[in-house]
């Protein structure tokens, strides 16, 4: 049995960044750019009207101006604005030559013969005009490589004419729940059967990291069925299997991994929950699949995913393997520990109430590694080191934020 730190060391060594890929900008939300974005255009790319009104030369002192043309957004003016004339422009229309201001439609008065009068106060140069390049210029770097794309970034990519971008792709994660006792929720549950809660949880955990989940459903505890499903899963970047990794007679998963040619890196970690965790790698035509066999109890699955699979996913998409970083808090109630394995136990961190600058940690009671209900309130895992002891309210404790 190896320690959590040693296990993380192994996972980190095996998790390499995926090669960059070109994607449509519409599919790029949440992904990291693999290239800097340099604009090839000025924005705006022409002097444009910011309002519906009349393009004039500010220094033209004529008492009235004849309207010589109307220009809609998307059109170009065919005339220049000469002294004593104006052009009626709509919002977004190019500013005609000779004009340097736009007077609001509401601020002019109309004479006969398409002639307008400006307000007595006149008009200042630049009013109502958005100058070419006011936002940015051709050659300007708009987004750096590594930047995570937001909806506004996607709009900016579209504005500068990009249809595709190079990104770090979303890792594809195949999820397989194993166990003869499992039925899909919504279907009738017979004696001795339970609903598959790990499958939906893992799919959601994967998707919460901007990765793609491939749901392989439920596999019976039969070597043939597991082999067939896992074979499919090995096409993905990560295969996560739950259940069947312990030492029971039906714990076939490690054996099937081996038959499929998955190289074991480690099996069993000194932690609670999550001890039977199995980890290996599979190489096929230059592509590597990381393979996790997580213990079937839902909380074991959750804790193992948070501590081992999440950092691996991050390394695949961003290149850097970051170990989960414990933070320090102060207990708001007592918590006791027994046993030789460190325990990751549910707690609720209140980042708003602090003592000596550290957030408050409320330990949550739980009835063991099947107790999903206890975890609905948890936003962190308190880390209880090995040993028999009690910690009291006011004492410091390490925790890992989850979710
Ligand atoms: P195993 O790791 O297969 O020995 O399973 C350990 C415990 O977790 C057993 O009580 C299983 O019934 C339960 N379990 C296994 N897989 C799932 C799952 N997908 N959803 C909910 N519970 C599960
Ligand atoms: Mg099982």
Describe the structure.
Helix 1 (4-14) packs parallel to helix 6 and helix 3 (198-207) runs parallel beside helix 6. A six-stranded mixed sheet has the order 8-5-7-6-10-9, with no helix packed on it. Strands 17-14-18-21-20-19 form a six-stranded mixed sheet, sandwiched between helices. It has helices at residues 4-14, 151-159, 198-207, 223-233, 253-259, 298-318, 372-375; strands at residues 21-24, 32-33, 37-38, 48-49, 53-56, 65-71, 85-89, 101-104, 109-111, 115-117, 129-130, 141-143, 164-168, 172-178, 182-183, 194-195, 212-219, 238-242, 263-267, 278-284, 287-294, 327-331, 335-337, 343-355, 358-363, 380-384, 389-391, 396-401. The chain starts with a helix and ends with a strand. It is of the alpha+beta class and 403 residues long. It is built from seven helices and 28 strands. It has four domains: 4-19 and 170-318, Molybdenum Cofactor Biosythetic Enzyme, Chain A (3-Layer(aba) Sandwich), CATH 3.40.980; 21-35 and 142-168, Molybdopterin biosynthesis moea protein, domain 2, CATH 3.90.105.10; 48-130, Molybdopterin biosynthesis moea protein, domain 3 (Molybdopterin biosynthesis moeA protein, domain 3, Beta Complex), CATH 2.170.190.11; 327-401, Beta-clip, CATH 2.40.340.10. It is elongated, with a radius of gyration of 32 Å. Strand 9 (109-111) and strand 10 form a beta hairpin.
